[in-house]
Structure to design on (355 residues):
């Protein structure tokens, strides 16, 4: 009888392992059924009670960790009932035959088995909650990464296209006005439009090439979207603004040590957007750009004496400048000056060079 009891219990465990992944409650029912049969065949079921409780507890823990709460609670109730009812029945039968489990042990089991099932269920449920939290964190991180990438692309496209199209519009209007009276100036305006258009097209191609890269390298930032300009291109920016009718006075202060690529690019883009706004909206013939690099900080200030303006509007230029400064841990402010005109200020921290 003992041999048959162990054999039936072993077969039930094997079947439960095969069923547990797809049909957890059916696997639990097979385990409980096999345990009942083995307890009936074995004269002293108390020998297998500890092993059986451990096996069923592990199944309950697995079900609670991988199934819904409704399924796991049902499984825990099944386990408690499936262990207590056969134990009481077999013990009563054994006492009639002069054996079985004593009533004191049954009283202990009546309390211990449900408690053990609850503990197993709580452990599995905690594992499920931890997995759910980890999945939520991964989903949120992926969503944030996607949003950050979209904002990066939006800023780069805005700064690349808005500046060029603004200059092109001004040059086209200037050329149209002097087309008959001053053909030479009209030709110069058309030449400038051609140069700016070609440069913008090349920049867009670089951006698209960077976006289509199948294997971006770790640490790729804005520069990965194309050839990244920097403060070394300020003179070219000033020349383009001068062709559009705005003289840009650049005042360098402090040192001119090489900057990290992301800071160099963001500084240039902030100045570019500020100068573009002067060209398009300020209705003035000049603006001042101050660049000061010292004491671990890069300070940028762009001022003009035009008609000023308002922070309200539907454009994304100021928003993009503020985002660039914030991403680098810097400060940004923009607004009308008390004595007229507009002022843009950005302060970007510059990390000390590695030794």
């Amino acid at each position: 009888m003992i041999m048959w009891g162990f054999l039936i219990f072993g077969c039930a465990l094997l079947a439960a392992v095969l069923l547990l992944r797809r049909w957890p409650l059916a696997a639990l029912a097979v385990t409980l059924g096999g345990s009942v049969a083995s307890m009936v065949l074995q004269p002293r079921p108390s020998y297998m009670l500890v092993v059986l409780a451990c096996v069923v507890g592990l199944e309950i823990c697995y079900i609670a960790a991988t199934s819904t709460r409704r399924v796991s609670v049902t499984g825990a109730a099944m386990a408690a009932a499936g262990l207590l009812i056969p134990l009481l029945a077999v013990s009563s039968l054994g006492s009639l035959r002069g054996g079985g489990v004593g009533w004191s042990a049954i009283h202990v089991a009546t309390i211990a088995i449900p408690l053990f099932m609850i503990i197993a269920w709580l452990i599995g449920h905690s594992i499920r909650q931890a997995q759910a939290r980890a999945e939520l964190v991964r989903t949120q991180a992926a969503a944030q990464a996607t949003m950050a990438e979209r904002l990066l692309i939006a800023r780069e496209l805005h700064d690349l296209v808005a500046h060029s199209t603004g200059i092109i519009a001004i040059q086209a209007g200037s050329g149209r006005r002097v087309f008959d009276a001053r053909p030479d100036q009209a030709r110069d305006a058309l030449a400038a439009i051609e140069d700016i258009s070609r440069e913008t097209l090349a920049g867009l191609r670089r951006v698209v090439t960077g976006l289509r890269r199948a294997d971006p390298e770790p640490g790729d930032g804005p520069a990965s979207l194309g050839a990244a300009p920097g403060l070394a291109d300020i003179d070219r920016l000033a020349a383009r603004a001068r062709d559009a009718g705005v003289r840009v006075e650049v005042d360098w202060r402090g040192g001119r040590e090489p900057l990290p690529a992301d800071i160099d690019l963001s500084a240039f883009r902030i100045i570019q957007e500020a100068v573009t706004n002067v060209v398009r909206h300020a209705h003035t013939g000049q603006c001042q750009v101050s660049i000061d690099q010292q004491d671990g900080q890069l300070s940028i200030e762009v001022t003009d004496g035009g008609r000023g303006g308002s922070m309200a509007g539907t454009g994304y230029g100021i928003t993009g400048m503020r985002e660039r400064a914030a991403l680098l841990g810097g400060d940004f402010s923009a607004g009308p000056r008390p004595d007229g005109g507009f002022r843009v200020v950005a302060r970007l921290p510059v990390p000390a060079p590695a030794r």
